[in-house]
Amino acid sequence: GDTPKPFEGSDENRMVSYAELGYEAFGRAGEVTTQIVHKANQVGVSALFLILAAGFMEELMGKLPTSTYVLICGAIVSPVVMFSPNYKEMAFLSFLGVSASMCVVVVVVVIGSMQHIQGEIEDRHHDLFLSKTFASSFAAITLSFGGHANFPTVEADMPDRRKFGTTVSATFATLASIYVPVAVVGYYVYGDEVESPVLDSLPASGIFPRLTKIWITFHVLSSYPILLLDTAIELQVLLKLPKKEESPRLELVLRYLLRFGLVAVTVTFAYFIPFFADVMSLVGATCVAGTVFLMPCAFNLKLRWHNMSKAEVLLNVVIFMAGSIGGVIAAKQAFSSLVDKVRNGDD
């Protein structure tokens, strides 16, 4: 009919964001829900970056607790968030993510293999399947592959949009080629004592693990402002704050207050709940599961129901149900674990 479809049509009627897809599928309620989940995901991942950086800084420098290093990390990145006009000026830092990830792969695979070959690691216990940790693993894997909320924007910016499907497939294949060797070597060598993040399983005194942790710390602290600036700029539009040309002083004050508020939320969260593995599972099970499993299927069923085969409908329903069940169980486990650790004051 006349209804514009995502990823189809002219530039005038194309939908280029998850929020637009949400509105087209379920109206204002769909748009608002999508925005809330997407923004919560960005804030959650930003807090996760602070926890990871602070944890590595504590290991590398010691003397202070992780919570104190969270405050230090917040002080380092807050001026960038507060005073940068937009995140595009820092886009060149995105290459750090690729290089940092490759460093982790090489260091974990090489050092882990060497420790195993040289007999430095005693035989560890291995399980083929653990039902009690399956849900948390499901959430962590979801977070690792969860870039779906950005797909509409990526597709809209491609010179040849017909290659979008091939590009996404190649991207996931590349990610798998990075994750699988680390997962296999990490679990085979360290077994049930493998740490999260996996770099904590390597010798603490080794020069290469230490250098990799420094590189990862620099990477996540560089990525933090990009995530929060993107969120702040979108929120300025959503909240309909005055534009600079309309009221320069008011726009400046409100912009600083909004950005300071976002930094304060992430630093406060990371300060009081500095538990990397559980926070990663919680974010993956709630926000990311929504953008990876639930929303794509719900949008697809609502917008393309009459053009889908029975097999396509069944596949979307199965994915939606699996994502819902896995997300709920993983979120419950992660939340319970966080509550226990906060009550007990665990490190």
Keyword list:
347 residues, mainly alpha, 0% strand
List the helices and strands and how they pair.
Blueprint: H1 18-61, H2 66-83, H3 95-117, H4 131-144, H5 151-157, H6 164-190, H7 207-238, H8 248-272, H9 276-304, H10 310-344
Report on this model:
There is one protein chain. By secondary structure, this protein is mostly helical. The protein is built from 10 helices and no strands. Helix 4 crosses helix 10 and helix 9 (276-304) packs antiparallel against helix 10. The termini are far apart.
Give me a quick take on this structure.
The chain is mainly alpha-helical and 347 residues long. It is 73% helix and 0% strand.
* Derived structural class: mainly alpha
Oligomer state equals single chain
Provide a count of the helices: 10
Q: What's the order of the H and E elements? A: HHHHHHHHHH
- Biggest sheet statistics: none
Parts with pLDDT < 50 across at least 5 consecutive residues: 1-5
**What is the 3D shape?**
globular
Mean pLDDT comes to: 84
The tally of strands reads 0
What gap, in angstroms, lies between the N and C termini? Answer: 57 Å
> What portion of the residues fall into strands of 2 or more residues?
under 5%
**Helix percentage:** over 70%
Radius of gyration, in angstroms, nearest whole number:
22 Å
